[in-house]
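User: Hi! I have a protein structure encoded as tokens and I'd like to know what sequence might fold into it. I'm fairly new to this, so please keep things simple.
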């Protein structure tokens, strides 16, 4: 990430392409901290670099913009990309602190080529409400893809990412606070969502943080605290089938974790409730670890019982290394409690009846 570079050698290089031909624009000092088509991170004091604000004055034929290597704060202001409707690729890479303000990356894409937005190695990534909205008008073959990898996400507000996405990838990312409800909307097209090595254990995933129609949801090698209703906004839809992959994940936030003073259940109510199509769901689940107290298995035990719950239950390995099914143990506890309640009720009824007879 950006901290590994020397402050005197870090520059922002803006790479643009006109009508498909790449052109590296020569670097010039930024004026009053703003960033146009020709500038670099300018030394402000020894060992530091000025914060930058992105404001472009580029022709609408630009197809590629790459901004990288900046050990300072880069702010993308509202409407910064307005009118750049030919863009096929935007990349932010190796930036210390990147802030996208509201309406900063609203694009209507008219060409028929695919569009990719990539955030790579951003030490602190902040996406304000309505920051990214992608609207593809290039026809059914045009695909919109977003990748966030090797980054810390410090802020993910309501509708931070909205689009008719073909693919969304969150790879090797850490969420330093819970995303807002409905932070990401993948749209109606049936996106593929790949979550790989994501750490959301400390603050959790909020109710309906991810929404939209999704054809393939893959969650692998991640540490997740699922708050109630975390995935209820996901509508699995696919032609001809939908797929859900859930492998090698750590669920919940046990109290005995280092530095933890509270315990968050592993699978609370409605935490993995996906809307499943009539034709069913292809599920691949294995080697998922969690604590297995009755509090941790609420979602597995609550109605309705589904194939998804059964397969997820079979994939779970209890951290306490307890033998047997956690659901069966909790069902036994519940039944014992019910029998005890019935016995107490009958005993009280008999005592009341005896007292009434004695008084008569």
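Assistant: Happy to help. Inverse folding works backwards from shape to sequence: for each of the 360 positions I chose a residue that suits the local structure. Here it is:
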């Amino acid at each position: 990430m950006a901290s590994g570079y020397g402050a005197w050698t870090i520059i922002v290089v803006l790479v643009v392409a006109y009508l498909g031909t790449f052109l590296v624009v020569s670097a010039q000092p930024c004026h009053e901290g703003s960033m146009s088509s020709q500038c670099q991170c300018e030394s402000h004091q020894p060992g530091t670099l000025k914060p930058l604000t992105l404001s472009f004055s580029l022709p609408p034929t630009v197809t590629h913009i790459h901004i990288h290597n900046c050990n300072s704060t880069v702010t993308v202001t509202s409407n910064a990309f307005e009118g750049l409707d030919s863009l096929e690729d935007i990349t932010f890479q190796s930036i210390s602190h990147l802030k996208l303000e509201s309406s900063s990356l609203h694009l209507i894409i008219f060409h028929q080529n695919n569009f990719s937005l990539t955030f790579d190695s951003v030490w602190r990534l902040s996406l304000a409400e309505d920051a990214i909205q992608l609207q593809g008008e290039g026809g059914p073959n045009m695909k919109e893809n977003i990748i966030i990898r090797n980054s810390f996400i410090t802020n993910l507000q309501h509708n931070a990412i909205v689009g008719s996405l073909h693919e969304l990838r969150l790879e090797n990312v850490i969420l330093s606070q819970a995303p807002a409800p409905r932070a990401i909307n993948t749209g109606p097209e049936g996106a593929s969502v790949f979550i790989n090595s994501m750490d959301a254990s400390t603050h959790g995933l909020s109710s309906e943080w991810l929404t939209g129609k999704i054809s393939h949801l893959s969650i692998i090698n991640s540490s997740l605290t699922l708050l109630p209703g975390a995935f209820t906004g996901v509508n699995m839809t696919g032609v001809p089938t939908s797929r859900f992959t859930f492998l090698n994940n750590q669920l919940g936030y046990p109290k005995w974790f280092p530095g933890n003073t509270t315990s968050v259940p592993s699978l609370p109510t409605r935490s993995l409730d996906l809307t499943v199509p009539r034709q069913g769901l292809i599920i691949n689940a294995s080697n998922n670890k969690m604590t297995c107290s009755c509090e941790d298995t609420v979602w597995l035990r609550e109605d309705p019982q589904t194939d998804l719950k059964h397969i997820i239950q079979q994939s779970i390995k209890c951290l306490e290394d307890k033998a047997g099914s956690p659901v069966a143990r909790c069902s036994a506890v519940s039944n014992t409690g019910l029998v005890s309640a019935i016995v107490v009720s009958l005993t009280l009824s008999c005592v009341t009846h005896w007292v009434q007879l004695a008084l008569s």
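A useful reference point when you look it over: The chain has a mean pLDDT of 79. Feel free to ask if any position seems puzzling.
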